[in-house]
Write a structure and sequence with these properties.
- A 6-stranded mixed beta sheet has the order 1-2-11-10-8-9, with helices on both faces. It has a 5-stranded parallel beta sheet with strand order 4-3-5-6-7, with helices on both faces.
- The protein is globular and about 75 Å long.
- By secondary structure, the chain is an alpha/beta fold.
- The protein binds 6-O-phosphono-beta-D-fructofuranose.
Length: 472
């Protein structure tokens, strides 16, 4: 498999040269000269249109980017990922999250999913518990939290505590009855300081109401979970990374919040995107295009920041979820061979729900000195949302063309963005959306020759904190 430096690729060198010719080019002019642009620079995936016509690129750029993907050996890497080969080189294991939603999933995956869905259905029906509290952090928190917030149907009161600050658990337990509260402890390692501290605090809070039924555990370290006192334990597997684990029983709190049928639809939405990623030609492949457009912005146009702007209150937590997915995966400074990189990797990702974001940081997007590449996400929910979403993308791309305006009222425009357009929002769409970003992240890792599946950068802080607390 190709593990050479991307800068050695002919396509990379051609792209660097090609980028020079884009310096003075303006999006306003491009749309005026070519009315077909808004239909040509669009790709269709399962239930989604990816409109990248407002990006600062053209047909030649795309050809070169597709060539880059081919020269990087994307097809081979993709096959290895989907076949469960050990693509996580520093930990010598697969990153096989796609198996969690595959129709022909391994039997242990199917059995675990069935058991988790049955239990979630029972808990929703019996109403024995008034409060479900998920204790986990990072990938053991952000995914189920996003799903519960976006799609929870109100059958159960599902809360989340992720911070080691006791205030977080205190808030999650506000008004809860110990006899009618269930804790879902999610930790792949079952050693994470925040989660273990919160699980111990939960035991204290339960007092006499603590029974082996008070805790459900989801972990790859089932022995530690049993020692802790959980009766019902669901496995996680070492071949699934924390930030890719929402599809497993790690999503249990979400199953309780949205129901097992909706959770199944969530898995199926992702499965559709997996098939599209596996089969669609590179230049029509939505996650591949998202990755290539992102690399073009970062590496060739020098745009170091990326904003994700979902125009839906339901997706207000998506930016936090994607921050971990993209920045923990691709925030890397050495390549697969351990060589220090001479090119940029993951941009800084931030975002917030539109329209709220418009009244906060969009000023900088429109008139700031830094350029920020944006992803607008439209769900066809409501005319006012769609109108604002498109208006922002147009304002960024085209700006104003009136030299009589005072400088502070002028918009330079030429600020790139893409739109992901879905016609509705439900659990299936949520599955599609997350899987699109997962495959985008993987593809960029291949382009940049980095391992997207480890996170060694978080270890030093953990060790130092433990030392400061008097540990070894
Ligand atoms: O510290 C980062 C991290 O390791 C994430 O990658 C992971 O999702 C999170 O901590 C939680 O880890 P665990 O599930 O083992 O508690």
């Amino acid at each position: 498999m190709n593990t050479t430096a991307p800068t050695d690729c002919k396509a990379w060198q051609d792209l660097a040269h090609h980028a020079e010719s884009w310096r003075g080019v303006r999006l306003r002019g491009l749309f005026e000269q070519d009315v077909a642009r808004s239909v040509q620079l669009v790709a269709e995936g399962p239930g989604v249109r990816y409109d990248y016509s407002r990006q600062r690129l053209g047909a030649m750029t795309l050809r070169l980017l597709a060539r880059l993907a081919a020269e990087r050996g994307l097809a081979e890497w993709r096959e290895a990922l989907l076949a469960g080969k050990a693509v996580n080189s520093t930990e010598n294991r697969p990153a096989w999250h796609t198996a969690l939603r595959a129709a022909d999933a391994p039997s242990e995956v199917k059995e675990t999913l069935q058991r988790a869905k049955r239990l979630a259905a029972r808990i929703r029906q019996e109403k024995r518990y008034q409060r479900i509290v998920n204790l986990g952090t990072g990938g053991s928190d952000l995914g189920p939290r996003l799903l519960a917030d976006a799609l929870g149907d109100g059958t159960l009161d599902v809360r989340f505590a992720a911070n080691v600050d006791p205030k977080d658990l205190e808030r999650a337990l506000d008004g809860a009855d110990p006899a009618r509260t269930l804790f879902v402890v999610v930790s792949k390692t079952f050693t994470t300081q925040e989660t273990m501290a919160n699980a111990q605090a939960a035991k204290q809070w339960l007092g006499k109401s603590n029974t082996p039924d008070s805790f459900i555990a989801i972990t790859a370290n089932t022995q530690l979970a049993a020692n802790f006192g959980a009766r019902e334990i669901f496995p996680m597997w070492d071949w699934v990374g924390g930030r890719f684990s929402v599809w497993s029983a790690a999503g249990f709190a979400a199953m309780c919040a949205i129901g097992p049928d909706a959770f199944q639809a969530f898995l199926e939405g992702a499965r559709e995107v997996d098939a599209h990623f596996a089969q669609a030609p590179l230049e029509k492949n939505v996650p591949v295009l998202m990755a290539l457009v992102g690399a073009w912005n970062v590496n060739f146009l020098g745009i170091p920041t990326h904003a994700v702007l979902p125009y839906a209150n339901a997706l207000r937590l998506l930016p936090s979820y994607l921050q971990q997915l993209e920045m923990e995966s691709n925030g890397k400074r050495v390549d697969r061979e351990g060589r220090e990189l001479a090119y940029a990797t993951a941009p800084v990702l931030f975002g917030a729900e539109g329209t709220v974001s418009q009244h906060s940081f969009h000023q900088l997007l429109h008139q700031g000195t830094q350029h920020v590449a944006c992803d607008f996400i439209e769900l066809g929910l409501e005319a006012k949302l769609s109108a604002n979403c498109r208006a922002q993308a147009d304002a960024l791309a085209f700006g104003t063309d009136d030299a009589t305006l005072p400088p502070y009222r002028q918009y330079p425009g030429n600020r790139p963005s893409s739109m992901l357009i879905f016609e509705k929002f439900d659990a299936r769409v949520m599955g599609r959306l997350i899987a699109l970003y997962e495959h985008k992240v993987f593809t960029q890792g291949v382009i940049w020759n980095i391992n997207s599946f480890d996170q060694w950068g978080v270890e030093l802080g953990k060790q130092l904190a433990s030392k400061l607390l008097g540990g070894s």
